[in-house]
């Protein structure tokens, strides 16, 4: 009796080829009519004598088993099978103060840099990825007015791993430098120094006396303007806020 060829590939949810997956073909009566394993490149094939409806069962370590209906025609059939993982990743995204960050974009990429899945955090700042394959991933989190974060997470072969993420504030500070008791702007050098005395940023004012610092972390700072006798003042910056801080210089 002539046989028909059933062939295809076994791949993961991230598109990775799965070798050594076990494939079993049963007929409508539940009898095994074929068994094979996928090659390193994920490909497989059966030669089946009987036509009609069959069920293809595919299993692989670290993946959920899959059963697929196959209609075997005289000219054969091509069936590609996608297996999902058995592990999961979840956590909470919060600010430096511990407040949840809703609507943050959470992206998961595999070792090749391919995006596996993406989520948006809920009102409680929570996110969750299910059906993952064990391995190392890059977890990237971003939200408006906060500094993005990327980190490596390792997902186990089974079970769930928890990874909370803290997003620090990226505030904007702007202002105008003027002479003392006047609305006349001046050109000056403006320096931002943190509580430890480290210079975080420095800039020169525009011709209208304005200056701006972008993406400043939350914290306590001293802001110094020079060009005339220097002026220094304390500044408290909140996470993700826009702060205005005008400076007056004396002659």
From TrEMBL:
SUPFAM superfamilies: Carboxypeptidase regulatory domain-like (SSF49464), Cna protein B-type domain (SSF49478). Pfam families: CarboxypepD_reg. Keywords: Collagen, Secreted, Signal. Signal peptide: none annotated. Transmembrane segments: none annotated. InterPro entries: CarboxyPept-like_regulatory (IPR008969), Ig-like_fold (IPR013783). Belongs to the serine-aspartate repeat-containing protein (SDr) family. This is Collagen binding domain-containing protein. It comes from Kutzneria chonburiensis.
